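Duplicate of earlier report; RING-type E3 ubiquitin transferase input re-posted below.
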Amino acid sequence: RPLHAKAEQHLMCEEHEDERINIYCLRCEAPTCSLCKVFGAHKDCEVAPLPAVYQRQKSELSDGIAMLVAGNDRIQAIITQMEEICRTIEDNGRRQKQHLGLRFDSLYSILEERKKELLQSIAREQEAKVQRVRGLIRQYGDHLEASSKLVESAIQAMEEPQMAVYLQHSKELLKKITDMSKVSMSSRPEPGYENMDHFSINVDYVAEMLRTIEFQTGA
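Output:
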């Protein structure tokens, strides 16, 4: 800061107390008085008027301040730019996370849909096979019930003591037994009919392919 006029009046030389400091030693880079230049420590030094050196150094300091301020402005601009880069990185990261989530959600949907289709295929064949076997069970059950009733009728006929009465019903009963014995009960599920192993799937190659999912380079 420039010295006030009153302060300048009282700025006196330490060596010559009655002398005002009014010149500047260029070699020693220090303000001094005229007597120091003539008789004192600065008699062999080059000096300059104090106001001239004051104005020159003040101008240099002003230029230095301006340079620092300009440098500070550049630094602040760089900081602001880098802060904006950080915000952009965060925004881009959030957007890419969202896109990645959507891509994987799409894969999950495909897997769920395919899983549903394959489960339906298993369920259809399972139902068809069970229905066929249950139909055969009903068929065998009906035959068993009819055969058991015929056995009961035959046993009752065997207990008939009167020959004439027995002979009235025996012919028809024998025919029913003959017909019943001729009914084919050969329909049975073929060996391995209950096997469902053909619905096994191998997802190893798909799993391995999924593990290779990576970001696109140069995208």
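The radius of gyration is 58 Å.

Merging into the original ticket.
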